[in-house]
Amino acid sequence: MWPPGCQTATVSETIYERMGGAETFTRLVGAFYRQVAHDRELRALYPEQDLGPAEWRLRMFLEQYWGGPTAYSTQRGHPRLRMRHRPFAVTPAQRDRWLRHMFAACDEVGLDPELDALLRDYFTRTAHMLVNTPDEPDEPGGPDKPEVAPPSRHRHGGRGS
Ligand code: HEM
For residue 25, with 0-12 CB atoms within 10 Å meaning exposed, 13-18 middle and 19 or more buried, which class applies? Predict the structure, then answer.
């Protein structure tokens, strides 16, 4: 017997379903990319003129991550996010711009607080993990050490590489 009040709950319901499925992720990622399109600095990182394909990739990745359809891996293979971000200079400042837009998108979608917190925590941890380049010393939010020579923007150009 189910405990009282649990008769209608589906034990196997995924977080994806609890979040509202495809509709929620379409709104979330749509809101995010609308903001990226207007952020000149962050937009400069995205190689494609048309953000539509990038929107599809992020949406399908997130749907898969939270237990939805697995179209991302079917079409793109194993996610390997760190490797896939290696071509882009993800600095702490760019990470913060990315997160600011994603949090604004979360505000727009307005999930229930428990699910909203899960999503924001995931984005925060993952975006921190993806940083692969130090800030320029004079970059907004960059380290306050003007006497130190700026690190090379080219991560693979050091001696011996
Ligand atoms: C929670 C954090 C993040 C997640 C889950 C995420 C996820 C993804 C995914 C799934 C892709 C497509 C990979 C592919 O299939 O080729 C992608 C591409 C990309 N990401 Fe991220 N990303 C995150 C954070 C960031 C941050 C912090 C930046 C930069 C500040 C960034 C910049 C890019 C760029 C420039 C692309 C290339 C566009 C594309 O080809 O799709 N990402 N990201």
Answer: buried
